[in-house]
Amino acid sequence: MSKPKSRPEAWLAALALTIICLISLGNVVVRYTTNASFAFTEEFSVFLLVVLTFSGAAVAARQHDHIRIIALEEYLPHKLKRPLYLLQWLLSVLLLGLIVWYGGLLTYEEYTWESLSPGLGYPTWIYLIWLPLLSLAIIIRLTQSLIERWKQSLTAERSDV
Q: Locate the Tripartite ATP-independent periplasmic transporters DctQ component domain: which residues (predicted)?
């Protein structure tokens, strides 16, 4: 069975990592050749690391690669696996739902207050909007993963009977 796809998040993660590498390398080269450095690299790198982390988490969620209690899953009877899958999903959605809610509130507040980033003076909501959006993407991918695992568990249970 091939791994499920989550291409938008995978492309976003790859793009974020590529940009981090390029601006960091560029900054190092400029710093050592001119004794100056780019002002934007730290601010952009931190932002891109958040994008990379959350988009990578969405990919991992879709492919069932998140850290979970694998040993417990493997040794549980098929009838108990589905409640465990549901519990894992519920707790993950609860946590990510809080991030979506409070991240959305923070983004809205930063937008209405017209807050600017300290380094470059860009609106901070541009950086913050990715937190609730990518958390929502993780919830979607976790739900897809739950449905797939649920169906596989039902199939396995039927084959045991």
A: 20-151
